[in-house]
Amino acid sequence: MRRNALLALLILSCLSCKEAPPPSDNPLLAPPVNAALNVSARQALGWDYQRALQADLNGDGSEEQVVLAADVVVNERDRPLWEDGHRWAVVVRERGSDTLVFSSFVPNGFVEAAVSTASSEGGRELFIQERTPSQVRSLVVSYQEPGSARSVSGAYYQIEQWMPGSARMSE
User: Which of 35, 132, 31, 165 is nearest to 90 (CA)?
Assistant: First the structure.
């Protein structure tokens, strides 16, 4: 009888067991998109300030377009008119699909983006650096396919003082 009770308990506990969610369901792995900004890829691609490059991010043999955008006004000479803060975004464009992989409001600062060298599988990661007078935030994002990206790592550094001439918004 005791053996049957233990067996029933074991069966019930197994029935209530659930598989661990796949890593993509882990919010800590989600791309660094600030949902409070309510920025979409389409909206960011409509901003005047944009820089772009081509790279095969996911190792599938075809290049994706990576777009860094900010909601700053650009004058007639194509110069940004920087203010106290702007929304920034990074969007990956592939096969008619746009994937927002980063968004943030950056006060008195700027964002830079770069693409890593290829891994042994051929994929590349996005390095995104957000700089303000008091903080540096460095992020690594992996883009898999349209609609799918994940955070790989992030580091946050508080800054007491910059060297003169170090932080510039030179464009």
Answer: 31
